[in-house]
Amino acid sequence: MVKLDGISSFVAIAEAGSISAAARRLHLSKSVVSERLAELEQHLGAPLFHRTTRKLSLTEDGSAFLERANRIVWEVQDAVAEVAERRGSLSGPMRLSAPVTFGRMHLGPALYPFLARHPGISLTLELDDRRIDAAAEGYDAVIRHGTVEDSRLVALPLAPSRRLLVAAPDYLARHGRPDSLAALRQHRAIYYTNRNVADWRFADVRQDVFVRPPAALRVNNGDMMRDAALAGLGLALLPSFIVGEELRAGKLVRLDIGHEAAQELIYVAHPEGRRASHKLRTLVSTLREHFGTPPYWDVV
């Protein structure tokens, strides 16, 4: 008989790309995961992976089996969640990814009381500013800031997000205050490297005619962008959830160039084809209520 733990291990290996990575994800030893895979292949009578010294890749049989295996794993997890829901409780593992700055500043304070109310949930939260492939890397969902670009994800909005063009008073005293798109060319900018070249997007402004300021700094973290702006290195286009306190304290100044930055979202996204679990739906409702409409940080 094919065992469920063998199927779960196979799915984890396929998503993680190696037995070692799957073992870390499952909190098991590499030898246990390897034995489960070998037993599954023996029962099926076919190898599921091509093995080389560098990587594993699915065989034709493995690719065909993966779709059904994924469905089996998720059906079992849904069944467990449904039983817990009938008992009036939420339980089981949940794995999320979120941006570093938003996670530290706003997600954590919303998550802690949620987890305290639902002690049966075991949450793994990984903060990372890079774009995560939720399905391939085995996440239940990812929390993102920006526009929904991945068609393989189902997005659940949490809150609108405004990005504001800001600079330190000291920088403006030295270099002047820009009041138009054209005036931006005379300044230097702090750019976020995890976005493409079109990061600075303004409503009703064609990207092919907008000339961006030269870079003073490119960095992949919002905290450092804010700190660089506070240090007077240049202009920064940052979400209000990062710079709200500095704007209220007068440490940064919002600039009006006659155009608003393009609207963005903070959202939860889960892989297409997977039904959002009751845990995830409850978490989304909790986050929406905590952030508010408009979100509490957007009072500048």
Automatic annotation (TrEMBL):
Gene Ontology molecular functions: DNA binding; DNA-binding transcription factor activity
Keyword Translocase applies: no
PROSITE patterns xrefs: HTH_LYSR
Domain of life (superkingdom): Bacteria
UniProt-listed Gene3D superfamilies: 3.40.190.290, Winged helix-like DNA-binding domain superfamily/Winged helix DNA-binding domain (1.10.10.10)
One Pfam family matching this protein: HTH_1
SUPFAM superfamilies, per database record: Periplasmic binding protein-like II, Winged helix' DNA-binding domain
InterPro entries documented for this protein: LysR-type_TF_proteobact-type (IPR058163), LysR_HTH_N (IPR000847), LysR_subst-bd (IPR005119), WH-like_DNA-bd_sf (IPR036388), WH_DNA-bd_sf (IPR036390)
Record's keyword terms, sorted: DNA-binding, Transcription, Transcription regulation
Domain HTH lysR-type residue range list: 2-59
Assigned protein family: Belongs to the LysR transcriptional regulatory family.
Protein's recorded name: LysR family transcriptional regulator
